[in-house]
Design goal:
Elements (H helix, E strand, L loop, with lengths): L1 H8 L23 H23 L6 H12 L8 H7 L5 H22 L2 H5 L3 H28 L6 H13 L3 H10 L6 H27 L5 H31 L9 H21 L3 H11 L6 H28 L7 H29 L4 H11 L4 H12 L5 H16 L1 H8 L14 H6 L4 E7 L5 H10 L8 E10 L5 H9 E2 L2 E2 L12 H15 L3 E9 L4 H12 L3 E5 L2 E3 L5 E3 L2 H13 L3 E6 L16 E7 L3 H13 L5 E10 L12 H17 L2 E8 L2 H11 L5 E5 L18 H7 L9 E6 L23 H11 L1
Parallel strand pairs: 1-2, 1-6, 2-5, 6-9, 10-11, 10-13, 11-12, 13-14
Antiparallel strand pairs: 3-4, 7-8, 9-14
Helix pairs in contact: 2-3, 2-14, 3-14, 5-13, 5-14, 7-8, 7-10, 7-15, 8-10, 8-17, 9-10, 10-11, 10-16, 11-12, 11-13, 12-13, 15-16, 15-18, 16-19, 17-18, 24-25, 25-30, 26-27
Length: 804
């Protein structure tokens, strides 16, 4: 019996079966590999995305949330409960979890290689090379010094050579993908600072991978001669990829021209090459990730091929598989192993050495190469960004027995801390100042008075807005002697995708959205259709149309709109209403964030602003110039907003296909509209000018006497028949709203009524707010030689609080 008991206790646990027969058959799904893996993936995604949402106000990259999520699910937090750990992450499931995580990591490193362009690295200037060299050498030296301290305290008995290199690499790494994400989030990716940081980080990234390959080769259990053979074989394989595989990839790129779909067999072949390269490098002994990374670098970046590869792979990998790697790391991280003054002192020492080496080394060399002080400090903190590559180094070190649990936890916390502080410190020390060109005419009324060019910026979210926008632009072109220039801005939310970074590169210049003069799409996907639509209209009309794309987080995209309006010196910004027309004629919100964007632009704009409530002006397609036949109505109560709407409508009335009706509401005191006000003289002058034009052209002027708000509502409803577009001021002098409940205060009382269910006509609405110098904080924000001031954050917070 005793012998039987011993043999039973020492028997290995059976491997997990793949699928269960179901709970009704008495099977526990957590005891089977597939349902347990599904649960693990779902749990990881929910935890990491929830943390990312909570950290979004701090503008932290998602990698921070994923690292924290992995730590929380591991033995440092939730994993301290053995029942949870043994049920959700049992030891027999970790092999499957690690395998799937490493498959995701392998393809993610392939995507990182796709983002690295060797040609740009070869073109890197001496300044970026010097900064990269300083950012590698000084922290590497401090890492070697730190390894001696760790070896004498917490990693006793570790082999000296591999530990030296692993610590040097761990402290000298700059996470290229995370840095790109932070720069894009801060709108610095295409500024001089961003380009310098990305060039230095690209050089740093390649150097770090070479050093890591050296560390892996030296960490093997064989003799030094074996390590030499590993390095020589790896070098030979890279040469083979360059000679034999790169021409095959280049041939597939040439067979995939612009405008043509990439063949499925090319995508499949490339992914198989990635897996095969991973197999070879793992067989050599330098980890499968290297093969995938090198293949990504080898893929030519010309044409659409690389972009299509990213689109095919990134969503599945980045959203589902890659977070598993952070959990796999988190399960190895036990913060509780850092206990006592000695361990916490070592943590402080490692963080200090990492920051001193990277930050001060970068700052010193930057100042020597004549980088301004603020930019040098910002660059130092940017280059200190860690992330996924850091975790890869640490995991390989732990798997190779170079790092123990305590050293691993210390280095993970170091990576988390150095990345976490990057965004807030860069925001604090670096606020770029942009030159402001002379800007005299902030309103349409002023541009009309001086008979000067009218500049309009028209923003839109989706291609559904394009026909109405083009028809509105055509209606606004006026006479040939007064030129119209329109900047159309496609508002695209900055996503967490790798392709978003390349989209930002194509869509921005010097930190701002720009017009792509080559006629190529600024963004992938729908961007091409947008370009074609506006380019076709530009060719067929006398209007100068310049398409742009703004790719930013929705919480800051208003900054793009406003600074571009300032840079282009426009008189009017047209914003899309945050609600989309449905088939039943009602409006449905596309998101609260878009509502906030409109509010922020209205509060900070350096010119007049109009919100377009789109009910399909001219139908679902663009109307040619000769077929334009619209009836437009201006509802005039008085005030600067109504005068600006009237000025814009008068400009539109110059088009031969436009019939304009100006309706002035005359009221008694029961409506509480003053008969004599500060604006009364200006209102009267605008009306007299309108009457004079009515005698000459296709303008009809009429006056309506109303007694109360009900009369106003009835009159507007009656006028809705046969009108294609209403123009109204945002803030007419009406003391009470025309609706019992107004959920869109930015439309004003009249505009809110026209956009409501109470108004059943199919007319589109343009609600105009005249430029207010007191709200124009952005014109003072950017100066030619002075430092940039900051728009008070409390103002934007107040806007969001009001909408909530």
């Amino acid at each position: 019996m005793a012998t039987s008991a011993v043999s039973t206790s020492t028997k290995c646990q059976p491997a997990m079966k793949t699928t269960s027969e179901g709970a009704w058959q008495g099977d526990d799904p957590l005891h089977f590999a597939l349902p347990l893996l599904i649960l693990q993936i779902c749990l990881v995604v929910v935890v990491t995305r929830s943390l990312a949402f909570l950290l979004k106000p701090l503008r932290q990259p998602r990698v921070i949330a994923e690292i924290i999520g992995g730590i929380l699910l591991g033995p440092s937090a939730l994993g301290r409960n053995s029942k949870f750990l043994n049920s959700v992450f049992p030891k027999q499931s970790l092999t499957v979890l690690d395998t799937v995580a490493n498959i995701g990591l392998l393809f993610f490193l392939f995507l990182v290689g796709l983002e690295l362009d060797l040609r740009s690295i070869r073109r890197t200037g001496s300044k970026a090379l010097a900064i990269a060299a300083a950012g590698i050498s000084l922290p590497f030296v401090l890492g070697i010094g730190t390894s001696f301290v760790l070896r004498s305290t917490v990693i006793k008995g570790a082999r000296q050579g591999p530990l030296l290199i692993f610590m040097g690499v761990a402290l000298s790494i700059t996470a290229f993908p995370v840095l790109a994400r932070i720069l894009a989030e801060l709108k610095l990716l295409t500024t001089d600072l961003g380009r310098l940081a990305m060039s230095a980080a690209a050089v740093n990234d390649v150097a770090a991978w070479i050093l890591l390959a050296l560390a892996i080769a030296l960490s093997g259990s064989g003799s030094p001669l074996v390590s030499l053979w590993v390095l020589l074989t790896a070098t030979a394989f890279i040469v083979f990829l360059a000679i034999a595989v790169r021409p095959i990839l280049g041939w597939m790129v040439r067979k995939s021209p612009e405008g043509e779909p990439v063949r499925e067999v090319y995508i499949c072949t490339t992914l198989v090459i990635v897996l095969a390269a991973g197999f070879v490098t793992d067989t050599i002994g330098i980890h499968a990730l290297f093969g995938a990374f090198v293949v990504g670098i080898m893929v030519p970046k010309d044409g659409p091929f690389a972009g299509v590869l990213i689109e095919k792979v990134e969503d599945l990998v980045s959203s589902l598989f890659l977070p598993l790697y952070f959990v796999s790391s988190g399960l190895k991280t036990n913060v509780a192993s850092i206990s006592g003054a000695k361990s916490w002192g070592l943590l402080v020492l490692v963080i200090t050495n990492a920051c001193v080496g990277k930050i001060f080394g970068t700052i010193i060399v930057s100042l020597l190469t004549r980088v301004p002080k603020r930019e040098a400090v910002a660059l130092g903190f940017l280059m200190n960004t860690k992330g996924l590559v850091e975790l890869i180094v640490l995991n390989i070190g732990k798997d190779r027995k170079v790092l123990n649990d305590e050293a691993f936890a210390i280095l993970v916390l170091m990576a988390l801390f150095t990345t976490f502080i990057t965004t807030p410190i860069v925001m604090a020390v670096y606020k770029p100042a942009r030159p402001v060109a002379p800007y005299k005419h902030h309103t349409i009324e002023r541009a009309t008075e001086t008979d000067s060019e009218l500049r309009v910026m028209a923003c839109f979210h989706t291609s559904r807005n394009i026909p109405t926008l083009i028809n509105l632009i055509e209606s606004s072109r006026g006479t040939s002697r007064r030129r119209l220039t329109v900047y159309t801005m496609h508002l695209v939310e900055l996503s967490e995708r790798s392709s978003a970074i390349s989209m930002v590169h194509r869509a921005r210049r010097n930190g701002l959205p720009f017009w792509n003069r080559n006629g190529k799409a600024a963004a992938s996907g729908g961007g091409e259709m947008v370009e074609v639509a506006f380019e076709a209209y530009h060719q067929l009309s006398s209007v100068s149309v310049r398409p742009m794309t703004a790719i930013s987080d929705l919480s800051t995209i208003h900054d793009d709109i406003i600074t571009c309006a300032l840079d282009k010196r426009v008189q009017l910004v047209i914003l899309p209403f945050h609600k989309m027309l449905q088939l039943d004629g009602s409006f449905e919100s596309i998101g609260h964030a878009y509502h906030v964007v409109n509010q922020k632009v209205l509060h900070h704009a350096p010119c007049s602003v109009a919100i377009l409530v789109d009910r399909g002006l001219g139908g679902a397609a663009q109307v040619s110039a000769k077929d334009v036949e619209y009836s437009i109505c201006v509802l005039f109560f008085g005030g600067c907003d109504d005068r600006e709407a009237l000025a814009y409508a008068s400009r539109m009335a110059e088009h031969p296909g436009i019939s304009l009706t100006v309706t002035r509401f005359i009221t008694n005191n029961s409506l509480n509209i003053p008969l004599v006000s500060e604006d009364n003289t200006a209102d009267q002058m605008a009306i007299e000018a309108c009457k004079a034009k009515a005698e000459e052209g296709n303008i009809k002027y009429q006056e309506l006497v109303v007694d109360d708000h009900a009369d106003v509502a009835v009159a507007i409803r009656d006028m809705g028949k046969g009108i294609n577009l209403f123009l109204v001021g945002q803030s007419p002098p009406v003391s009470e709203p025309l609706l019992e409940r107004q959920d869109c205060p930015e439309l004003g009382p009249v505009g809110g009524f026209l956009a409501s269910r109470e108004f059943t006509a199919t007319a589109s609405v343009l609600v105009v707010q005249c430029y207010n110098p007191e709200k124009d904080t952005y014109s003072k924000r950017y100066t030619v030689e002075g430092e940039a001031s900051v728009v008070p954050a409390t103002m934007d917070q107040d806007i969001e609080a009001q909408l909530d």
